[in-house]
Specification:
Length: 303
C-alpha cells in the first residue's frame, strides 16, 4: 500500500517538505512538474532534482511517487525530501541540557544552523535532533543565528508549542546574552537603548533608521581585558540581528562579526574566528506547570 503524505517517515532526520501548486498564467506555467521545481529552486542543480525523482523522493498528495514526466497539476500539493549532494560538515556538537515531555533546552555551538535551508540540511541542529530522537515533530520555539552560540528552546509537542511561543510574543521570557566587543571609555553603562530597526541591503542585514523605536536592549559592561570588553545584553524584543546591530551602532561591533559594520563573506568551511555572541541564559514561568524554569549555557566566549 502506498504511504500517504502524513505517513511519510523521516529520512536521516529529514521530514518531507510540502509545496502547494498554484494556478499560473498559461504563458509561464511549465508543462512538467520537474521543470517547475528546477525553476523554483534554481540554486539546486538540475541533476540533483533528477536524482530525487529517480530515488522516489517526490510524492503527490495521495502518496503516489511523482514521475519525472508528470504534468504540473495545479490545485494539488506535492511532498519531497531534501538532500544535498555535497554538504559541508559542521565539526561541532550540541548539548541537550534539559528535556521533558514538552520541550528540550539545547546548548548550540557556533556555525550550526537551526533549521534546514540553502546549503545545509543534514548539518543543522533540527535534523540532528530529529535523527537522534526519532521525533519528527520537533520545532524551534524561537530564533538563533547560525553564528550565535548558546541556548535555544525546542518544542517536542505541537499541541503545546503555542503556549511556549506566546512567552516570546508577550515578552514573558528573559534572555540574557554575552558579547565580546571593543572598549569605549566614553560610554556610560548600563545603557537602555530603544532603536528603530529596518531591513537594508543585502536583504539579510538590518540597520538603524529614523522612526518610532521598535526594539529595546539593556546593556551592561561586565569585564575589560585590554582593548576588549565583555558585555551583558538583555533584549526585550527579538528583531533580526538586533544585538549585533545595537553594538555596531554604538561603535563597538561584536568581535568577528561577518556582517556588521560591513559584510565580509567567509568560505562556508571556514570555522575559525566565531562570532563572539552567546545566548547565555533563559528563564521563564512554565505555562503548563507554573514552575520557574532557568537555564544557563556552559559555553564561554573568547576574550
Amino acid at each position: 500500500m502506498t504511504a500517504k503524505p502524513k505517513d511519510l517517515p523521516m529520512l536521516d532526520g529529514v521530514s518531507a517538505s510540502m509545496i502547494y501548486l498554484e494556478k499560473m498564467d498559461a504563458v509561464v506555467q511549465p508543462k512538467r512538474l520537474f521543470d517547475f521545481l528546477c525553476q523554483k529552486f534554481a540554486h539546486i542543480a538540475v541533476d540533483e532534482w533528477r536524482q530525487r525523482f529517480v530515488d522516489g523522493l517526490v510524492f503527490w498528495d495521495d502518496g503516489v511517487p511523482v514521475c519525472i514526466d508528470d504534468e504540473y497539476d495545479y490545485g494539488r500539493t506535492i511532498y519531497y525530501y531534501r538532500f544535498l549532494k555535497h554538504e559541508i560538515i559542521v565539526p561541532f556538537s550540541h548539548e541537550i541540557i534539559f528535556e521533558n515531555q514538552e520541550l528540550m533546552v539545547v546548548d548550540k555551538p557556533h556555525f550550526l544552523t537551526i533549521t534546514p535551508s540553502g546549503q545545509y540540511v543534514q548539518q543543522t541542529l533540527l535534523t540532528r535532533l530529529k535523527k537522534d530522537s526519532g521525533n519528527s515533530k520537533l520545532s524551534p520555539i524561537h530564533r538563533l543565528d547560525k553564528e550565535t552560540a548558546g541556548l535555544i528552546l525546542i518544542s517536542k509537542n505541537p499541541a503545546t508549542r503555542g503556549l511556549y511561543q506566546s512567552l516570546f510574543k508577550s515578552q514573558n521570557i528573559k534572555k540574557i546574552y554575552h558579547a565580546i566587543a571593543p572598549v569605549r571609555h566614553d560610554l556610560m553603562f548600563p545603557l537602555d537603548l530603544h532603536l528603530h530597526l529596518v531591513r537594508k541591503e543585502p536583504f539579510y542585514t538590518m540597520k538603524v533608521a529614523d522612526g518610532t523605536p521598535n526594539s529595546h536592549t539593556h546593556i551592561t559592561h561586565l569585564q575589560t581585558r585590554g582593548d576588549w570588553a565583555k558585555y551583558e545584553l538583555y533584549p526585550t524584543t527579538g528583531k533580526l540581528h538586533q544585538l549585533r546591530v545595537y553594538l555596531s551602532h554604538l561603535g563597538i561591533p561584536i568581535k568577528n562579526d561577518p556582517y556588521y559594520p560591513t559584510v565580509r563573506h567567509k568560505a562556508p568551511d571556514d570555522f575559525g574566528s566565531p562570532l563572539q555572541l552567546l545566548a547565555k541564559s533563559l528563564s521563564f514561568i512554565d505555562p503548563i506547570t507554573g514552575e520557574l524554569m532557568a537555564f544557563e549555557s556552559k559555553r564561554q566566549l573568547e576574550f
